[in-house]
Write a structure and sequence with these properties.
Blueprint lengths: L20 E3 L3 E3 L7 E8 L17 E9 L2 E9 L3 H6 L20 E5 L2 E5 L7 E3 L5 E4 L15 E2 L6 E5 L7 E7 L5 E8 L10 E2 L3 E6 L2 E3 L1 H5 L6 E3 L6 E6 L8 E4 L8 E7 L2 E8 L17 E8 L4 E8 L3 E5 L11 E7 L4 E7 L4 E7 L9 E4 L9 E9 L4 E8 L9 E4 L10 E5 L2
Antiparallel strand pairs: 1-5, 2-31, 3-4, 3-32, 4-5, 6-7, 7-8, 8-9, 10-11, 11-12, 12-13, 14-15, 15-18, 16-17, 18-19, 20-21, 21-22, 22-23, 24-25, 25-26, 26-27, 28-29, 29-30, 30-31
């Protein structure tokens, strides 16, 4: 009898089965006292064993992991499943009531953000956020005080000048349109624009500049056949679909979007975008294709870091390769979202193991920090030393798997000494499975 294996259910992709609360975590080195808040991370973690032949990495139940740092100490670590009705039932708990969208009561498994005093676990595809307490217990689905009419995205962009969250959301039930939304600093939706696109697309992320919201209308579209067959993520590559990006003036309407064709590809994650005179510069991690032959996860070949320069007056996009090494989960200093940036960070896939890369885009150089024995690249989050610190003055935080312990660590790197010894390593009591996204949420 042949045993079916699924790479997203083995090794450090495999789910953990225990919720823990650990206090006074052991630390190697010295945790900066300026780090006061929570490092939060979200990812798929099936609460019951899925069918390995059909399990898609994007479809696992959401589990949020969190560390609270204060006064140079790691005060606690917690991991909690997000309790949608299915997860709550599996755990023998009552369902949390709240306003789900279109009966899509999905436990958000992709990102977790803090905004306007709320902690929100978020996902794409039509489901609403779930609100969590400070200690990561589930409150319930959240429609932002009745102001969010539909589903949301896993990737809002925070404007550092206004503290607004900008997003492009999609849902197969909306047909050939996506929705641009703005959540104001008080946590209420202040703007909605429905935008026609070329098909029922998957728009995983978006970008903003000071003038525009950037829409990625790319060839991964809803497949009725895949949905009918019970696919965990029913979106597939369409080689006939015209790949393009749209620039929506941030105060404009759908009719104001300017569209620009690009070579066929898929973008899960841009690094950043900014205005440059009559052009817009967009740095993205570019996949040649997605969900064309590999249908259990994003595994269609190594993605590259590319730069798209949109010549608005000329009606064209100049595409250039910045780094052809396989990499993903790009991050920038959040104070520079939508502004010109010099540095960027990403997980990089090396020959045998993985690591983190720091890009200096002014000098066209990079530094690589190997993560030996990790087996998978992590997302790196930059935290400035203080509000007015220079772009490179702060720390890079990343969850790293330690195969020797079969557990994970929070590694705190000095950004200006990226390949040097970590300033601190917080040793967690169990694995944090390879997942998706997280953020530093300061207490202030």
């Amino acid at each position: 009898m042949t045993t079916v294996t699924n790479p997203y259910l083995s090794g450090n992709y495999a789910p953990v089965g225990t919720e823990l609360t650990a206090t006074d975590l052991p630390v190697t080195g010295r945790l900066p006292e300026e780090l006061e808040g929570r490092y939060l991370r979200n990812g798929p973690n099936p609460v019951t064993a899925p069918e390995p032949t059909s399990y898609h990495w994007f479809s696992g139940d959401g589990m949020v992991h969190g560390l609270r740092l204060r006064g140079g100490r790691a005060e606690w670590y917690r991991n909690r499943w997000v309790r949608n009705s299915t997860v709550a039932a599996a755990l023998g708990e009552p369902a949390r009531s709240g306003p789900v969208h279109a009966d899509m009561d999905f436990a958000p498994n992709t990102n977790v953000v803090g905004h306007a005093g709320r902690t929100l676990a978020i996902v794409e595809g039509g489901a609403r956020p779930y609100e969590l307490t400070y200690e990561l217990e589930t409150v319930g689905p959240c429609d932002l005080g009745g102001t969010l009419p539909g589903g949301y995205t896993a990737h809002p962009k925070r404007d550092p000048a206004t503290n607004e969250l900008h997003a492009i959301s999609y849902f197969w039930g909306w047909g050939n349109q996506v929705q641009y939304s703005v959540i104001d600093a008080s946590g209420r939706v202040s703007r909605l624009v429905d935008i026609p696109v070329g098909g029922s697309v998957s728009v995983h992320d978006m970008s903003i500049t000071e003038r525009y919201a950037v829409i990625y209308d790319l060839p991964v579209v809803f497949s009725l056949e895949a949905a009918a067959g019970g696919a965990g993520f029913p979106y597939r590559w369409d080689p006939e679909y015209q790949a393009r990006i749209g620039l929506l003036p941030r105060d404009g309407e759908a009719s104001d979007v300017k569209w620009f064709d690009v070579e066929p590809c898929y973008v899960f994650h841009p690094l950043n975008a900014y205005d440059d005179g009559d052009s817009v510069v967009i740095d993205v991690v570019r996949h040649q294709r997605m969900f064309a032959s590999e249908l259990l996860g994003p595994n269609e070949g190594p993605p590259s870091l590319d730069r798209w320069t949109v010549d608005i007056n000329g009606g064209k996009v100049i595409e250039e390769r910045l780094d052809d090494r396989g990499q993903e989960f790009p991050r920038v200093d959040e104070r520079l979202v939508g502004r010109r940036h010099r540095y960027g960070y990403a997980g990089i896939f090396l020959e045998k193991d993985a690591g983190l890369v720091k890009h200096d885009l002014d000098r066209n150089t990079s530094e690589v920090r190997a993560l030996s024995r990790s087996g998978g690249a992590s997302e790196a989050v930059f935290v400035p030393r203080h509000a007015d610190a220079a772009e490179d003055d702060g720390w890079v935080l990343s969850i790293v798997y330690d195969a020797d312990r079969d557990a994970s660590d929070l590694v705190v790197l000095n950004a200006t000494d990226f390949t040097g010894e970590p300033e601190a390593v917080v040793h967690l009591p169990q694995r944090v499975p390879f997942g998706f996204h997280g953020n530093w949420v300061p207490d202030a």
